[in-house]
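Fill in residues.
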């Protein structure tokens, strides 16, 4: 399933199409939620996918993935699911709003809890880095990658500090601007 996620990642990066984004998110969610049960209960990769062991920021991102996957599959939330919902607005990438103006990315994105903004590119980067950590048995469960946390926190637009953009946040940024870069540049 991790190889499938990486394959879907490569397709997604070719054009950031919403269908590829949905496939990537569905695979990520199932890899986190369902496929964990297929691992030995003492395996490190299984422990790294237990919510209670994750930083709250990563739980937040996984809630976003859950919302997008379940919203795309079920179309109507149960009262229990509606109470857990984090995603406030889904953006197609075609709108002209504050976030689109600030980031200049014509990509699908979500606004979460009113002020957190995750473009599909950034969400993709965070998720891939998370699963790289999950399946790397040389890194302990106590060593959650700080670069993932920095990228998540950077998406809290009103509370974003100064300084350079986090490394994980910047990955694949060139592909988000593909249509705007002249061919001979």
């Amino acid at each position: 399933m991790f190889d499938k996620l990486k394959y879907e990642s490569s397709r997604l990066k070719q054009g950031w199409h919403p269908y590829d984004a949905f496939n990537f998110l569905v695979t990520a969610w199932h890899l986190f939620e369902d496929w964990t049960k297929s691992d030995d209960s003492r395996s490190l990769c299984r422990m790294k996918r237990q919510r209670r062991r994750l930083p709250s920021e990563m739980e937040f991102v996984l809630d976003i993935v859950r919302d997008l996957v379940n919203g795309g599959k079920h179309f109507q939330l149960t009262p229990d699911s509606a109470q857990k919902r984090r995603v406030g607005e889904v953006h197609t990438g075609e709108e002209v709003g504050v976030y689109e103006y600030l980031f200049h990315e014509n990509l699908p994105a979500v606004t979460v809890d009113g002020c957190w903004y995750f473009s599909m590119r950034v969400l993709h980067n965070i998720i891939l880095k998370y699963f790289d950590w999950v399946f790397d048995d040389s890194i302990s469960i106590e060593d959650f990658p700080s670069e993932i946390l920095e990228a998540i926190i950077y998406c809290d637009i009103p509370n974003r500090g100064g300084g350079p953009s986090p490394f994980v946040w910047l990955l694949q940024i060139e592909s988000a601007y593909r249509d705007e870069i002249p061919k001979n540049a």
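The chain has a mean pLDDT of 82.
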